[in-house]
Amino acid sequence: MLYDNGDYELYDEHIYSKDPLGFKDSKDYSARLKEHQEKTSLQDSVINAVGLMGGMKVLISAMDFSFMGGSMGSVVGEKVTRALERGFKEKIPVIVVSCSGGARMQEGALSLMQMMKTSAAIGKLGEAGIPFISVMTDPTTGGTTASYAMLGDLNIAEPNALIGFAGPRVIEQTIKEKLPKGFQRSEFLLQHGMLDEVVNRKHLRSYLIRVLRLFLDSHP
Question: 4-218 in CATH: which number?
Answer without folding.
Answer: 3.90.226.10
